[in-house]
Specification:
The protein is globular. The chain is built from seven helices and three strands; from the N terminus they run ααβααββααα.
Amino acid sequence: MKTYDSKELKRFNYLFGEIDAAYHEASLQLGLSDSAMRILYTICDNGGGCLLQTICRYSGLSKQTINSALRKLEKEGTVYLESAGSKTKMVCLTEEGKQLAAKTAIKLLNTENEIFDSWTKEEVHTYLSLTEKFLTDFRNKTRQK
């Protein structure tokens, strides 16, 4: 088995942390908490409304964090929840929420699209394939322990 010296692992961890920090900075610059941005981002990335369980799965946030942030967003008039089944809720943007999302989450989505548009199809494919491979391998190995 090939092992990488700490230089590669340090670089990986640095880049991982810096990407997270860049998204945090972008959220703050746009006037949102990380959790509010992730929720709005997930809703926008799913067409302006999505199931609560989708937000849980795609945002990477805990259910408790999502529920707290959603209560705040509801109170501010940004989102509303509607029943989508006996135990399922749909999270939707209000008109005010759509305006906020246009100034925040959609800006991030557009930025990401601009970056991917500036890369070749091969670069995008390679980046996504390797990221997915790392995630899959990481999950499999951590589940074994």
